[in-house]
Amino acid sequence: MMRLVRRNVSMACEMVGFKERETNAITLAVDEGCTNIIRHCYGEKNEGLIVVRIHMFPDKIVVSLKDFGGKVDLRKLERCRKKKQRSLERAGPVKPGGLGVMLIHNVMDRVQYKTSSKSGTVLRLTKYLSHTKEAEVAG
Asked: Are 122 and 65 in contact (CB under 8 A)?
């Protein structure tokens, strides 16, 4: 199913007007978000639902990923991201874990979490166009 998610995100990015490099980065960020849901929310369960919503606007794309796992500890998630960032800045050995969250934050302009123990978590990823279509057409 991830192939379908990646294809749809990529096509939506192209329709909004993102360049190929940005489209690839956004698609990777969404893929990482889904991968984290699969690993950390559903873990050893054989199945779990992820609702993917793609909203296209003239100047941005918003992708929402909803899972129905337990509540996410946002402070722990942020500490993990900052720890991984410091590790990379020190040019120390890169250890597994935390890179996906850091990648998501580096690629996307806005990363928002809404989490509840009753209804799961929504990860909302927003990316604005770095150029306008009009400027591209005029050039």
From this structure: yes
What pLDDT, in 10s, does the model give residues 30-54? 999 998 888 877 776 767 899 999 9
CATH number at residue 117: 3.30.565.10
Nearest to 124 by CA among 65, 69, 58: 65
Distance CA(75)–CA(84), nearest Å, equals 14
Dmax (CA) for the chain in angstroms is 53
Its pTM surpasses 0.85: no
Helices (H), 1-139: 2-16, 20-36, 74-89, 99-107, 133-138
Q: Do 100 and 28 contact (CB within 8 A), yes or no?
A: no
- Quote the domain boundaries for residue 24: 2-133
CB 94, CB 87: distance < 8 Å: yes
CA 104-68-82 angle, 5° bins: 30
